[in-house]
Amino acid sequence: MRKHTPSAIALCAAMTTGSTATAEGTWILGAAxxxxxxxxxxxxxxxxxxxxxxxxxxxxxxxxxxxLSYHVIARDGPGDSSTELSFVLAPRYAPDFGxxxxxxxxxxxxxxxxxxxxxxxxxxxxxxxxxxxxxxxTHKGYEASAFAGVQYDVGAFTFESGIGAKxxxxxxxxxxxxxxxxxxxxxxxxxxPGNSTTGFASFSAAYALSDSVAVVGDITFEDLGNAxxxxxxxxxxxxxxxxxxxxxx
Length: 249
Prior knowledge:
It is a single chain. The chain is mostly beta strands. The protein has two helices and twelve strands, in the order αβββββββββαβββ. It has a twelve-stranded antiparallel β-barrel. A hairpin with a 3-residue loop joins strand 2 and strand 3.
């Protein structure tokens, strides 16, 4: 489904784990080898080198993968709890359809989505919820997700793991997996996925080589739900793996 997948999001979160962002700002530079199973018909498993550039302050974040984020609320609570609510503006990259007659004429543009992301942490436990919708009039849909898990340190390692669920509107699913009546052909039947709720899970790890350099990794699994009935899809799930190196200053 490339490229803004759960694994990419989780990898970026792992990259910034332990970041010491200040009012003056912190730069994060790096690159990761990113592998993903192809979910579309004829699409081979993909491995690519993905660069990562981000800049963070106490309230503001910008990265080439996840767009813009402004923390409207960022405060500590009782004990070791904290609450964060952010406005986000991010790209949803166009589906990576395969070649061949099955996909001829199915043009998709990259969309720009805006919404809110909230996170609550207490001890090692966290809950993250996110709602984004298309503001570029590209797919005209929206997505809501919730993710719960734990984050903990073991020596120089930081681990994060959890499970979540996504709700996608019919318009977004049409953009990702659908075939309109106008686009139907003899080899490509019309298909309208409708709304969907799917599950996903991820595990991320970061190993600090120094105060400013870390090795990071991530694996994410996502169920495709009713998208498996699409004539464009030949897998029931999507799995992605990433391994990278980052530098903060």
